[in-house]
């Protein structure tokens, strides 16, 4: 599979010279204008030239979709273009005078939440795109709308900074109204707080029009919006504090996709450590020894080395393409990532369609991995008033509760304790298309260890019945 970047852009990119690199995921309701904004950023930062943009505009008009033309710079499959909905995680690349960026454009549509999770798992900053258009904000935000679920998932996926981009400020129902901006701001603040973000330090609000380009690169015209004194979106991104990169830690790179191009190529974001061409590494959980035969950056230029925070493609020697799956982790032989079939985790229960008790099965999303898991036992619950752990295990878990559970997988999975490597230690559990719980791994149980004694609660019978 060729990247959308090389397929779409014939622009020659400046080689990056030690610029800081930030991964940005666009999230939000299906029609909030995420792809349009991505397209506009690529155009305004010079990654897509005028001629290419005009070609997209013409094609979109012929397809009867005039305002989609900017998003065609990101949406790369004919299926996505026909629908105007982004399906896979679209990737694109741009740079400013200060930094270089990878855009991960995640689908907003309900059925595509798993792709959204894998996009967010690779990001440093989330741009939550909100439509200010009357009626559209309300639809995305009410119960069942995707805005709520997305912001919760992004926090779980490990993104600690959010820019809430209030888009479509040029819409006839809005006309850059300060009142409308403040109304949306007031409704979102308690919500981002409840998802675990600190509204003062982790979240920034900014008004834009992705379609007209106002307040994206240059600050919005004072004639349109005399009340906005803040930066433009790109100014804000260029001045955000950089995340802490574990450059000196052991190498860990979860694989998000793979393809064959003169040998197997794996794609992913390095979460810890560094690597260089010629390195001998291990592909976990299968313990396959591999060698790095080439490293490509976001623009598919070959580079000699890469470090934590980089999004790269790596050609491997010593393994077959079919023996690699998304969710595997490329790691250093001296301190490989853990591969376990049992771990203890703290879960916050968000929904419970079915009774959550020992024997309950759900789908776990952790970094780039999707795996079916079973709650082998519920070990403790936290008292809401005191925050203390119960001595007795709960019989079942209800919405709003925090519990500790023993979780089992059928095949070994590559995970770490949340305290040590947050990106490999936080996960979501989903069931019947809903996010049921968000979790943090607190203890890894080595294959040699005995399952802890849980007072006969590992209910052999219930597992057989499941």
TrEMBL record:
GO cellular component entries: cytosol; translation release factor complex
Single GO MF descriptor: GTPase activity
Keyword Nucleotide-binding part of the UniProt annotation: yes
An individual GO BP term: nuclear-transcribed mRNA catabolic process, deadenylation-dependent decay
Superkingdom of the organism of origin: Eukaryota
Keyword flag Lipoprotein: no
Pfam families: GTP-eEF1A_C, GTP_EFTU, GTP_EFTU_D2
Segments forming domain Tr-type G: 19-245
PROSITE patterns given in the database record: G_TR_1, G_TR_2
Keyword line: Cytoplasm, GTP-binding, Nucleotide-binding, Phosphoprotein, Protein biosynthesis, Repeat
Cell compartment(s), UniProt: Cytoplasm
Family: Belongs to the TRAFAC class translation factor GTPase superfamily. Classic translation factor GTPase family. EF-Tu/EF-1A subfamily.
Protein known as: Eukaryotic peptide chain release factor GTP-binding subunit
Organism encoding this protein: Calocera viscosa (strain TUFC12733)
Lineage of origin: Eukaryota, Fungi, Dikarya, Basidiomycota, Agaricomycotina
């Amino acid at each position: 599979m060729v990247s959308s970047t090389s397929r779409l852009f014939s622009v020659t990119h400046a080689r990056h010279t030690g610029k800081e690199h930030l991964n940005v995921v666009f999230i939000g309701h299906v029609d909030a204008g995420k792809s349009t904004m991505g397209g506009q950023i690529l155009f305004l930062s010079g990654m897509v030239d005028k001629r290419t943009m005009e070609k997209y505009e013409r094609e979109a008009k012929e397809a009867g979709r005039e305002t989609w033309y900017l998003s065609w710079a990101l949406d790369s499959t004919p299926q996505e273009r026909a629908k105007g909905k982004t399906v896979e995680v679209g990737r694109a690349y741009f740079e400013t005078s200060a930094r270089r960026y990878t855009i991960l454009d995640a689908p907003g549509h309900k059925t595509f939440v798993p792709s959204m999770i894998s996009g967010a798992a690779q990001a440093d900053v989330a741009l939550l795109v909100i439509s200010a258009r009357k009626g559209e904000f309300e639809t995305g935000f009410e119960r069942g709308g995707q805005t709520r679920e997305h912001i919760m998932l992004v926090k779980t996926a490990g993104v600690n900074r959010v820019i809430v981009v209030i888009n479509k400020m040029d819409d006839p129902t809005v006309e850059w109204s300060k009142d409308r901006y403040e109304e949306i701001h007031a409704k979102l603040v308690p919500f981002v707080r409840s998802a675990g973000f600190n509204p003062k330090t982790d979240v920034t609000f900014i008004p834009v029009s992705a379609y007209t380009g106002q307040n994206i690169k240059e600050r919005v015209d004072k004639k349109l919006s005399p009340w906005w004194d803040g930066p433009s979106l790109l100014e804000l991104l260029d001045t955000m504090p950089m995340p802490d990169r574990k450059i000196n830690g052991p190498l860990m790179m979860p694989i998000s996709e793979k393809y064959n191009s003169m040998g197997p190529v794996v794609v992913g974001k390095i979460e810890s450590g560094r690597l260089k061409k010629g390195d001998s590494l291990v592909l976990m959980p299968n313990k396959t020894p591999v060698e790095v035969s080439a490293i490509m950056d976001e623009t598919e230029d070959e580079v000699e080395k890469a470090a934590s925070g980089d999004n790269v493609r790596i050609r491997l020697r010593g393994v077959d393409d079919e023996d690699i799956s998304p969710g595997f982790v490329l790691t250093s032989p001296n301190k490989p990532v853990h591969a376990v079939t049992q771990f203890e985790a703290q879960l916050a229960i968000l929904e419970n369609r079915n009774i959550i008790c020992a024997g309950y099965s759900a789908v776990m999303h952790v970094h780039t991995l999707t795996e079916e898991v079973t709650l082998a036992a519920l070990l403790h619950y936290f008292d809401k008033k005191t925050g203390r752990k119960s001595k007795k295990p709960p019989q079942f878990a209800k919405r709003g509760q925090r519990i500790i559970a023993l979780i089992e997988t059928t095949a070994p999975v590559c995970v770490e304790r949340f305290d040590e490597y947050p990106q490999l230690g936080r996960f979501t559990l989903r069931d019947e298309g809903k996010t049921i719980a968000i979790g943090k791994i607190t203890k890894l149980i080595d294959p040699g260890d005995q399952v802890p004694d849980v007072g006969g609660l590992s209910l052999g019978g219930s597992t057989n019945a499941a």
